[in-house]
Amino acid sequence: MTFDIITNNLPALTVIIPLIAGFLTPIIGWINRKLCWYHVMLTMFIVFLITASNLLTVINTGTIHYQFGGWAPPFGIEYVIDLLNGFVCIIIAFIGLMVSIYSKESIKKELPGKTIPYYSIYLLLVTGLMGMTITGDIFNFYVFLEISSLTAYALIAIGDRKDGIVASFNYLIMGTVAASFILLGIGYLYAVTGTLNMADMQNILPTIYDNKVVLAALAFFMAGFSIKVGLFPLHTWLPDAYTHAPSTSSALIAGLMTKVGAYAMIRFMFGVFTPAFVIDMTRMTEILTWAAALAIIVGSVLAIAQSDMKRMLAYSSVSQIGYILLGVGLANVIGMQGGLLHILNHAVMKSALFLVAGAIFYRTGIRNIHQFKGLGKRMPVTTTVFLIAGLSMIGVPGTVGFTSKWYLVLGSMEAGMWIFVLIILASSLLNLAYFWRVFDNIWFGHPHEVEKIKRDEAPLSMLIPMVILAGLCIFFGIFAYYPLHYILEPLSNMLLGIGVLP
Amino acid sequence: MAGIIDIVYAEYNYWIYVTLMMIGFYAMIAKKNLIKKVIGANIFQTAIFLFYISLSDIKGGTEPILLHGETSTHAADIIYTNPVPHVLILTAIVVSVSTTALALALIIRIYEEYGSIEEDVILAARRKLNPEFSEYARQSEVDSQ
Question: Which domain holds residue A431?
């Protein structure tokens, strides 16, 4: 009896549990500050279980529709979980769980006295991202977008670093422009369709595709989301924000914010507009592939020029976002699978790399790559995690990075765009160039006092999430069949409108 | 000439919102003062609110409340304005206010740290304070080895 209430409302609980837990955090912190960590970890674990259960339900029985307050869809707010949502939700919950375990020691050192606000904002950020992903209502999407943006600004500025505040302010200005464009696009679509429900809108829109207002709405959405994901010419907020945020905030924001932005772009292109409109009529996907190809090359080249570890990883994010959007823009099933798989890959790899950067900073206070000499002996586990995640970013066979790049190359060939094959290969070489500098310094660099180096590993609560993430890099590299077969293949067919979901 | 005036007059609410939006956008991009940037953001957002609100109005429409004594059968004859955009904008105003509050809080912190809210002064101070990550410092480090 009591179980029915929970199981029937699982889609809503995905958002409500972190929201309520976020507001409970100050009360729990007021009782005892040390409890906050357990509270956040437990919450994230429950959310992870719920999203896993949602995803299994979707795989077994098809799309979940959840109506709030019993109001039927075109009027009430509806949560829709299909394979795309379920896939992104479980990534958010999993990375959120890993980073929350890691936070315990890192927060003590980097943000002393700010434990309670940090954890409170952390849960609200997860709420915002979950809500953006899970909702089927276009205005509800905007509200959650703003919740996630505002909390992200706060998480970046929460540190003691002066630069973090300026970076956060610049991100706020860029983010406000992006969100305002999206709001305007929503207004345009509402003006011509008279509905706010995504599925309903998708049914109405094909009859009015010759309307200029619809074209303007598409343009506003693409401009807004390009800022949100940090697509190349609009990426200027990203490197500063990732570099100057506290370690745990960087890992969470780099791992999730841009991925959810990319999800939103895919959802609006294929779930609000129709594939025929974005692929053939406006050729938006073709424009997107070229922008993505440019981002891949420029991001990699800029990453080579950096000597700050976190800044290098931030520029590398710019190029990795290019891979996701390239796969989506190719608009064939294989390329789409590669792009979607890269959402998972990049979330896992980039979080692992930022956690490593945080662990090195925690133990040694070093962020400049040229001072990493001898770290391989000092922090062997941490640097091995870095090696695995770095090899995965380069795309060495046996790691996840290889699988998604393989699919992207096959997709480019199928689309007949040989130049993208060249770009992907060239960018892998550039990735090798900037990761090799770090590997070289860590393992082959000789510091002046070799004898003095002692093993000085990061605490266990920081090591566990890093090792799990590195393990996943290899696990999904070897067993890539499971996500591809059960989730991504039917999902790509569904998005491109080929075949119908069971 | 008269044609253009007619076009502008027929949908003057859209012209007002576009003009306001561009003023706000210009201020966000071009102004060096951080407070002016925030004011620009506010104008930008308010312009979008005006767009939504003017969108919902209709000539001769009345507020969407059943008039006294009218039953639902009569209600079909009355033209109502659309209440939904107003409700959406109430939410968007709350979002806008919280963004502004956060931006002002950040500006206070920036002023405490840098002693200025002019963008070029802050940029110059950042270059001076953080030489360890600049290209110049890296080069001189390489030279010294």
Answer: 286-298+317-502
- Cross-chain Cβ contact B92/A183 below 8 Å: yes
Contact B95 A146 (CB under 8 A): yes
Give A81's strand partners.
Answer: A64
* C-beta atoms surrounding A51 within 10 Å: 28
**CA pair distance A287, A419, nearest whole angstrom:** 15
Using a CB-CB cut-off of 8 Å, the residues of chain B touching A367 are 133
Assigned domain for A94 exists: no
Q: Is the ipTM of this complex over 0.95?
A: no
**What are the residue ranges spanned by the domains of chain B?**
2-59+79-144
Asked if B106 and A142 come within 8 Å (Cβ–Cβ), the reply is no
Q: Which residue of B has its CA nearest to A308?
A: B133
Cβ–Cβ gap B126/A163 under 8 Å: yes
Count of domains observed in chain A = 1
**What gap in Å lies between CA A386 and CA A380, rounded to an integer?**
10
What's the gap in Å between the CA of B118 and the closest CA on chain A? 12
Contacts of B103 (CB under 8 A, 6+ apart): A169, A172, A173, B38, B41
Could you tell me the pTM of the whole model? Answer: 0.90
Which of B55, B99, B141 has the CB atom closest to A370's CB atom? B141
Q: Does a structural domain hold residue A81?
A: no
SS (H, E, C) B51-99: HHHHHHCCCCCECCCCCCCCCHHHHCCCCECCCHHHHHHHHHHHHHHHH
Instruction: Mark A86-121 as b/e (b = at least 16 C-beta within 10 Å).
Output: bbbbbbbbbbbbbbbbbbbbbbeebbeeebbbbbbb
From chain A, the residues in CB contact with B45 under 8 A are: 176, 180
- pLDDT tens-digit readout, A48-95: 999 998 888 888 888 888 888 777 777 888 888 888 888 899 999 999
In Å, how far is B69's CA from the nearest CA of chain A? 27
Yes or no: say if A403 and A480 are a contact pair by the CB < 8 Å rule: yes
Question: What dotted CATH number matches B2-59+79-144?
Answer: 1.10.287.3510
CA A351 – CA A316 distance, rounded (Å):
12
- Over residues A450-481, the pLDDT tens digits come to 556 667 777 888 888 989 999 988 888 888 78
Q: Within 10 A of B58 (CB to CB), how many other CB atoms are there?
A: 11
Pick the closest to residue A484 from A404, A427, A372 (CA basis). A404
Residue A40 belongs to a domain = no
